[in-house]
Design goal:
two-stranded antiparallel sheet; binds magnesium ion; 378 residues; 3-dehydroquinate synthase; binds nicotinamide-adenine-dinucleotide; zinc
Length: 378
Amino acid sequence: MTAVSADPSAAPETLRVDLGDRSYDILVGAGLLGGAGRLMAPVLRQKRVFIVTDETVAGLHLGTLTAALDAAGIRHDAYIIAPGEASKSYATFERLLNAMLEARCERATTVVALGGGVVGDLAGFAAAALLRGVDFVQVPTTLLSQVDSSVGGKTGINTPFGKNLVGAFHQPRLVLIDTDTLGTLDRRELLAGYAEVVKYGLIDDPAFFERLERDGTALIAGDEAQRRAAILTSCAAKARVVAEDEREGGRRALLNLGHTFGHALEAECGYGGTLLHGEAVAIGMVMAFDLSARLDLCPAEDAARVRAHLAAVGLPVTPPRLEGARLDTDRLIAHMASDKKVAEGKVTFVLARGIGQAFLTRDVAPEALRATVAEAVA
Ligand code: NAD
Ligand code: MG
């Protein structure tokens, strides 16, 4: 890092993800997009990139990126997809790969994903498949993608049989996180990403959760130092788990805290915007702690703190009603049983012995689960 600098963008904070010869850096700072050419240059195999972004992000941030690439003498093409989950499809994947081939991308060309998790997952998978694999750089622009999807190397698309069922593990060569891009994100999307930030504290970092209880409101309101610190802590947490368990045999499953409940809620509510993923995870984390308390694994005060903090920042903590009707307990439980993480008929739950003490278990008494779900939807 530069010793003294008046320009914060000149000295991003760096975090190394250790994965042997696939190790990479995560750079975090304000205004990094404006220096993207210089920051990316060391990992490029040729002075040429192929950018993938969506219409919304293109309108807000693509110009800054291309200007920075021009300034560094890096040639660029761009492919712009429609915003939204529907773009993580076979059809978009095919069009994108054809556009890359039409632009005569080479093995040494680097794919740059500029956008949220949709762009990152799609572009990363395209990079994994193009010419049997080219390098890619993540430039995540949502809080969720900055703290979660851009780190870890999972890429992919959705299918008629379920979300994220076709894809590849393909690690980026670099992750460039410009905290300024969050300035254009709407509050609801920001909060959804914040739920995943809280998750890292709840899994194994009680001091981080305490910090969020104190500073979370400032972070959400736009405090750059708080945002930068929380993103760094979150990426370090995810990187640590991924380095220990790159392909999800064990520990990586802890990252699913709140997700078994959350996925069931998302499935019941449909993916039409009633619940964003992070909102479902917030409710799911509350339910996981309530279940843990009900099973006497976790102090009731800890479950209450989780609920209180998420509610205080404006996240939902109880399942929504659909057209006035409460969600159906049996249907939610049935969704959990069909989750793709089920092995030999048993659902793996992430429960907690307290804040920062999450663990995996496949023995949850069905009556306790039912009682927790029934109470949540009541
Ligand atoms: P997203 O990519 O759909 O972005 C949300 C919305 O914000 C979009 O409309 C987008 O156009 C807009 N947007 C993005 N950046 C913006 C900015 N700076 N200013 C204004 N608007 C902006 O959604 P997401 O929440 O970032 O990501 C969700 C996706 O990530 C899902 O498909 C999910 O499956 C995936 N995901 C992947 C992993 C992984 O490990 N690969 C992990 C978690 C989630
Ligand atoms: Mg998630």
